[in-house]
């Protein structure tokens, strides 16, 4: 598993594409937080990272599929998966290695955003909500974990990396915002709407972002990760 993880990281950072994905993420979040009108802190009037944590999931919704799209698709297309399958590795070790490598890349992209916390702290005269920010980062990491598992699963469904990207982005969008949108249908109001909203990732991400780390939210994210990694395993077994 460690060998797969190192191989994937080496492959990702051996090309300009890997660095560009991280730079684009940081540019988008940085420009939105400090430059773009209506979303920047100076127009918002409060020293808070709420804008960043509201926007970050939407950026990750495109960034993570771009990171994971080649995980299995390129292996299938190039015929290297058959060689990989002959190695003394179980399918779970292969899946876990690729999953962890992609997740490490996402975390590397998130680490520089801690500078925003320092910047906000310097701009604020009354202190910042450290608990809320910590909870939001925990929520963002769990969100990234779920998106990464979805991306790995979608990459195992096709030999075309572009198709894998589109499938992953669509699946992430549906799971993140789709259930929330459906719950707002007037005919579902009165109880059923809350149940439907709870199925979506956005509900649990917002719950963690309030600074209260609830075990139910953590169990939800771990369940999503395990579900999509299991679907990936079943796909590889059938192949």
Write the layout of secondary structure elements.
Blueprint: H1 2-13, H2 16-34, H3 41-44, H4 50-68, H5 73-78, H6 80-85, H7 91-110, H8 114-123, H9 130-155, H10 161-182, H11 192-199, H12 201-209, H13 215-238
Helix pairs in contact: 1-7, 2-4, 2-7, 4-7, 4-9, 4-10, 7-9, 7-13, 9-10, 9-12, 9-13, 10-11, 12-13
Q: What would you note in describing this structure?
A:
The chain is mostly helical and 239 residues long. It has one domain (2-238). The chain has 13 helices and no strands. Helix 4 runs antiparallel to helix 7 (91-110) and helix 9 packs parallel to helix 13. The chain is globular and about 60 Å long. The mean pLDDT is 84.
Key descriptive features of the protein:
239 residues; mainly alpha; 77% helix; 0% strand
- Head-to-tail CA distance between termini: 20 Å
- Helix segment tally: 13
Which structural class do the helices and strands define? mainly alpha
Q: How much helical structure, as a percent, in the residues?
A: over 70%
Uncertain residue segments: none
Query: What is the mean predicted local confidence, pLDDT?
Result: 84
State the shape: globular
Number of domains: 1
Rg on CA atoms, Å: 19 Å
Q: Main beta sheet: strand number and arrangement?
A: none
How many β-strands, per DSSP? 0
What amount of the residues lies in strands?
under 5%
Secondary-structure element order, N to C: HHHHHHHHHHHHH
């Amino acid at each position: 598993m460690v060998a797969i993880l190192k191989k994937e990281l080496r492959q990702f950072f051996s090309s300009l594409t890997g660095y560009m994905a991280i730079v684009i993420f940081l540019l988008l979040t940085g420009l939105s937080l400090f430059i773009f009108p209506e979303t920047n802190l100076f127009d918002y009037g409060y020293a808070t990272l709420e804008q960043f944590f509201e926007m970050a999931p939407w950026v990750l919704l495109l960034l993570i599929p771009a990171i994971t799209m080649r995980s299995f698709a390129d292996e299938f297309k190039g015929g290297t998966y058959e060689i990989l399958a002959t190695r003394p590795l179980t399918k779970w070790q292969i899946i876990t290695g690729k999953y962890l490598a992609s997740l490490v890349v996402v975390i590397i992209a998130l680490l520089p955003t801690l500078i925003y916390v320092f910047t906000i702290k310097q701009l604020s005269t009354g202190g910042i909500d450290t608990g809320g920010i910590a909870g939001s980062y925990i929520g963002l990491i769990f969100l990234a974990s779920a998106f990464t598992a979805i991306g790995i699963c979608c990459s195992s469904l096709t030999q075309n990396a572009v198709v894998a990207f589109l499938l992953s982005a669509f699946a992430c969008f549906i799971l993140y915002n789709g259930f929330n949108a459906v719950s707002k249908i007037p005919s579902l109001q009165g109880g059923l709407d809350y149940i439907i909203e709870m199925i979506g990732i956005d509900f649990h991400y917002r719950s963690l972002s309030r600074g209260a780390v609830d075990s139910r939210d953590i169990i939800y994210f771990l369940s999503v990760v395990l579900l999509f990694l299991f679907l990936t395993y079943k796909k590889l077994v059938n192949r």
